[in-house]
From TrEMBL:
Main location, first listed in the record: membrane
Keyword match Membrane: yes
Localization (cell): Endomembrane system
Membrane topology: Multi-pass membrane protein
UniProt keywords, alphabetically: Membrane, Transmembrane, Transmembrane helix, Transport
Transmembrane segments: 35-57, 63-83, 95-114, 120-140, 161-180, 192-216, 252-274, 286-304, 316-332, 338-356, 377-399, 405-423
UniProt xrefs under Pfam families: ATG22
Keyword Oxidoreductase set for record: no
Originating species: Aquirufa originis
SUPFAM superfamilies: MFS general substrate transporter
Stated name of the protein: MFS transporter
InterPro entries hit by this protein: Atg22-like, ATG22/LtaA_families, MFS_trans_sf
Amino acid sequence: MEQKLNNPKTLNAWAFYDWANSVHSLTITSAIFPIYFPSAAITLGSVTPGMISILGFELSNTVVFSYTISVAFLALTILMPFLSGIADYTGAKKSFMRFFCYLGSFSCIALFFFSKGHYYIGTLGFLFSIIGWGGSMVFYNSFLPEIATPDRFDRLSAKGFTLGYIGSVLLLIQNLTMLLKPEWYGGIGGEMAARVSFLTVGLWWLLFAQIPLHYLPDSIAKEKDQKQWWLGGFKELQKVFKEVMVNKEIKLFLVSFFLFNMGAQTVMYLGALFGSQELHLPEDALIITILLIQLVAIPGAYFCARLSGWVGNIKALGLIVFVWIFVCAYAYTVTSQFNFYLLATAIGFVMGGIQSNSRATYAKLCPKGEKDTASYFSFYDVCDRMSTVIGTFMFGLIIQLTGNMRISILVLTFVFGASLLFLRPLLSSARAKVIWG
């Protein structure tokens, strides 16, 4: 059983899905697409081209961009628990992962046709690319306790994130050369270079995903009669929900994860906005910042995996969250470009650590031998998505009420601090002593 769980080909293939899909997070979510969208999502020939009509409402294109992210995360929050129950019941976990992977990658490919004025293509392509990415990640993460023993979780999770950071940076650099050095590509225009970059993301994702989709094991259906698969999926979810509600350790961890992930994802999604609006940094400085965060996250993920081995997962998470508090406090004081780069370095280091460690810790908290891993990880995903929505909304609301972005950042220090209150009881739990020392 031990050898079957820790099959090297399966472990390496699993980690490679981070390499495949992380290009979406960097090129589509963070770097090129957010810059391209406001210039292309316009109403041609209008006096106010930045205002576009969506379902009868006149909205600015920047608002549409923000709302698209919120709608995508909301859809994931509603759909994923139910679909994960069906996947566990029918044994179709890998099929669901494949479906969402293809939905996301083909949506990115469709963005190649997002030229000026075709805002429906851009909006819908972006929407379904996020749903495809987020949906596939739930089923991908849920394979972790099925293919490895707990002593491998930390390093395997870190390996996945590391491959994701490296792959996404390599493709982003390639795509940036098209934008910054068009003469290398026969004088390609800026709009076409951006659209080609979206195409490369979809093809990269689709191509490299074939490796994990080939090697990851097929799940076994719980019932031979699948006529009421939807009812079986609902019962499966209901069963896992009851188990989660009576498991004090999982509840405490999920509440803590909700809070510190709220802070981390808010910084990740809106950090560039702070640089551009508060410090008035040029676009090239913001792109350098994004690349810096990705590169520094690699040693951060591995260091925190080792830290978990030294002091245990919960203590390691507590230390990482404590560093996040100081990072946010320092961000409140940043006024220069150099200090912003220092801030980005610190953010990248703890971002890699907190993402990798959180996934590994939750996998360890799942009951030993548990087969309903997709259902368990759907609750982890719900906390991930909802905390992102609430965190970014709260950040914007505080700016609207106070007119000061720095106050929003300062509030995040209290969010991280609150997460420590829910981590602390886990240090004294019996399971923590047995598993994490």
